[in-house]
Amino acid sequence: MSSTRRVLTILLGILVIGFVLLQLVGLIVPSLARTNPPVTYQVQWDSPEIEQMMRKTCYDCHSNETVWPWYSYVAPVSWLIINHVNEGRDNLNFSTGQGELESEDLIRQIERGQMPPANYLSMHPEANLSESDKVTLIQGIRASLPGD
User: What is the pLDDT of residues 56-71, one digit of tens each?
Assistant: First the structure.
């Protein structure tokens, strides 16, 4: 075996071992756990259509009903996703009633294009809202949640 090939083999081995160690860290550190705690609160959405739109666009980050995609199990990407979901739940959680469950704040976020965020939409294009979807969703939020 040539020295170049030997060096490449060693580097590949180091990379594989490093990747495996990264995966193990996620299993050991509790704050890196993918969780879906019990649902203790249910928003009474104005219609099944509004509930479906909210679930499609908001619930992965703002509820305890997160659908964890395959890439959320691969470190270090998984750590970013888990952190994002935990932050989202801390700010607003439709499964616990925690956070600002007030219509006008949610509506401002949607109107400004801040929610759903672009990095979420890149991996979940089905959550992208057309202008007519935004109008429908905003009407449903106003009918379902208290104002400010």
Answer: 999 999 999 999 999 9
Task: Please tell me the pTM assigned to this model.
Answer: 0.81
What domain range includes position 20? 1-33
- AA identity, residue 47: S
E-strand stretches of 7-134:
92-93, 98-99
Please give the structure tokens belonging to residue 103: 């219509």
Domain count, the chain: 2
Which helix (H) or strand (E) segment is 6 a member of? helix 3-28
Residues 123, 117, 24, CA angle at the centre, nearest 5°?
Answer: 55
Nearest to 123 by CA among 70, 63, 86: 70
Residue 105: CB atoms within 10 A of its CB come to 15
Number of Cβ atoms within 10 Å of the Cβ of 98: 15
> 47 and 23: one domain?
no
Cα–Cα distance for residue pair 85/66, rounded to 1 Å: 8
DSSP code of 130? P
> Does residue 24 share a domain with residue 70?
no
The pLDDT tens digits of the residues spanning 109-143 come to 999 999 999 999 999 999 999 999 999 999 999 99
